[in-house]
Amino acid sequence: MDVPECHSTNTHLANLLGQGELPEGAVVITPRQTSGRGQRGNVWVTDPGKNLTLSVLLKPVFLHPRQQFYLTMAVALAITDTLAQWDLPSVVKWPNDILINEKKVAGILIENQIIGDRWTNAIIGIGLNVNQQHFSLPQASSLLQITGHTFSLEEILNALLLNLEVRYDHLRHSLALLKAHYLNQLYLKNTAHEFESAGVKFTGMITGVDEAGRLLILQTGQTIAYDLKEIHYL
After folding, report:
1. What burial class does residue 151 get, using C-beta atoms within 10 Å of its C-beta: 0-12 exposed, 13-18 middle, 19+ buried?
2. E strands of 116-191, at which residues?
3. pLDDT tens digits, one per residue of 122-142
4. Is 197 part of a structural domain of the chain?
5. Tell me: the pLDDT tens digits for 8-63?
6. Would you say 215 and 231 are in contact if contact means Cβ atoms under 8 Å apart?
7. Structure confidence by residue, pLDDT tens digits, 143-159
């Protein structure tokens, strides 16, 4: 569904879902998102008509809710797969920011609906900076800024949805393969880096993620698992 303007594609899709059953794979996309949301309560700001802002409805009922980080892996890899088709090597900064040359070009916001121990719906919000020229945040960039030329939003969207379908199939049938590919794309894996947790700065090395999706960091001879709000990159 192409919407001329909305506050948030995730919210719009959630509202449609609340009005009645939607088929798995339903997509809401807009050229103008006015109040996009990101991780940690951040706002996803995008110039109208320049980027991809969309949400996809998935129904991963075949997985237990404790496996929900595998869906994050699948979506992140669908984006890196898509960028690779345009010879744009990218990495995944845990948990789900997509970087090219240390700059963020895409982000993901997944909102799950879980009843008891059953995962019913997942709304997958994706923002990919494509043809935007200027950003207020220095850590953000776009494919245009990186390459110097514009891209067809339709071509990238079609590739992204196809890659998402492939990675969703991995989610159904090959979690081990999905995780291996995610770890292969993980930013700063096996590289010493500065972090901060609970106000304390330290040097550690990312070794992977656990089954709950927590970041595993080796520091002072032991590996510690961190949730999203417990660790910051410096």
Report:
1. middle
2. 118-128
3. 999 999 999 999 988 889 999
4. yes
5. 889 889 899 889 889 999 999 987 776 555 554 455 567 778 999 999 999 999 99
6. yes
7. 999 999 999 999 999 99
Residue 3, number of CB atoms within 10 A of its CB? 17
| Amino acid type, 92 | V
13 with 28: CB under 8 angstroms?
A: yes
For residues 57 and 90, membership in a common domain is answered with: yes
**Same domain membership, residue 168 and residue 203:** no
Percent helix / strand / coil, the chain, rounded to 5 = 30, 35, 35
User: Which amino acid makes up residue 201?
Assistant: K
64 vs 81: CA distance, rounded Å: 26
User: Distance (Å, rounded) from C-alpha 152 to C-alpha 166?
Assistant: 22
Are 94 and 158 within one domain? yes
Based on the fold, state whether residues 199 and 180 are members of the same structural domain. no
CA distance 95 to 111: 14
Q: Who wins on pLDDT, 33 or 116?
A: 116
Which H helix or E strand runs over 220?
none
| Cα distance between the two ends of the chain | 40
3-state secondary structure of 149: coil
